[in-house]
Amino acid sequence: MKRPTSVAPFPAGVVKLKSMKGQLMIEILVGLGVITTVLVFSLVAITHATRLARAARNRLEATTYAQQVLESYRNQRDLDKDAFFSGETCSPGCGTFGINAMYACTMTCAFSPAGAATQVEVEVTMSWDDGGGNMVSVKVPTALSKYDI
């Protein structure tokens, strides 16, 4: 019997092993690339969310401190309204607040009518550095009257 001299072609759907050399390595590299991309974007999202949470916390703390300053000023008015409005005094520097004196406080007052004030417009401003070199501030205004309404 005679041997066949040529090899029959592979049936449909069967691939030669020689043509698959290195394909597994490419699949692994593509998979690692996808995983790395997902991890990097996750890290960026977490960093951004943390920064937003810190900014919201700072804004809330600053607002709370400003309200405390206004409450203190309101208490000064309530102790002796006549002396408070006749003096027409307002201390523009109300100090620093927070850990490491993070928040700087300033206060502006506008008494009216001048000379015989019965009302004062007060605005407390808390300012701080957001950690990136940008100054951020919160303003809390109120009006105080000599007479109970």
Keywords:
149 residues, alpha+beta, four-stranded antiparallel beta sheet, 2 helices, 4 strands, 43% helix, rod-shaped
Rounded to the nearest angstrom, the radius of gyration is: 36 Å
**How many angstroms does the end-to-end distance come to?**
121 Å
Mean pLDDT: 87
Strands of the widest sheet, in order across it, are: 1-2-3-4
Helices and strands, in order, run as HHEEEE
Question: How many DSSP helices?
Answer: 2
Please give the oligomerization state of what you see.
single chain
Shape descriptor: rod-shaped
Uncertain runs are: none
Helix content: 40-55%
Beta-strand percent range: 15-25%
Largest beta-sheet details: 4 strands, antiparallel
How would you classify the helix and strand content by structural class?
alpha+beta
Domain count: 1
Explained architecture:
Strand 1 and strand 2 form a beta hairpin. The chain starts with 22 loop residues before the first helix and ends with a strand. With 149 residues, the protein is of the alpha+beta class. The protein is built from 2 helices and 4 strands; from the N terminus they run ααββββ. The chain has one domain. The model has no long low-confidence stretch (mean pLDDT 87).
